[in-house]
Amino acid sequence: MRKRMAALLLAGALLGLALGCSAGRQEEGLRLWFPVNPALGEVSAALGTCPYQGEGQTISGLLAALLAGPPAEEAELTSLIPPGTRVLSWSMENRVVSVELSAAYAELVGVNLTLTDYCVTLTLSQLAGVDGVRITVNGGGQSYRDRQVLYPEDVLFSGTEETPVEVTAALYFRREGGDSLGFELRKFRLTEGSVPAKAVLAALIAGPEDRGLLPLLPVDLTVRAVWMDDRVCCADLSGRLLDLSPGERELAVRSVAETLCSLDAVDRVQLFIEGEPAGEFGGESPPGGVSPNP
Considering the entire predicted model, what is its pTM? Predict the structure, then answer.
């Protein structure tokens, strides 16, 4: 049986998953998500699915099936969940499922932790009423994980298509002859190996294409890491930003925040400079091609 595959996007500690979620969130035809077996020559960061064949279409039933691993006939799928992992409890509040697992689950680190976390998240969020998943280990909280709640909506585009996916963003630059921001709309054709937020920031650093707009960011500014925390896009930029004058730096930070907030999956932006927090910002998508007030 042909599987739906998803490529994991990693940049620094953690980025989003490139996979299709529109077919989820239904109680009929539930599927279980598992990593693809790397021994079969697939990329190690790929996920696949198999049909859920349990009797109860419930959180408990899905969790039990995930812990049991993929069926023997699904040879191209594997499980990274450590042996001995048990579900200690689960609860639902504000459309988020909190799952507490036994201490064995804490053996997972790095990419294996990310893959397994998202297998749980993508599987459970197919159920009606489930928007996100919080995973804790034996009361140990989230000390080993960057995000508190994992959402399928962290995905910015589908990775199941064979053709590139178009992502539209508004890139904010300085208006010529003033200290206000204007924007130009750009369409990015991205493959499943691309990170939308990083692609948008690279274009912002490269400068505007439209007349009447001027660049704000230093051309040698680098993006150290980008990741999603719920619907907050976190971007860690190099210290080159600190070389700007205070006024120029404030305008540059606003341009970054407004640009990232123009992405559909982003509500707010948390900026870091050389790993140090530089503030959290909101933004508003440009309505009908008209620039928001500065």
Answer: 0.48
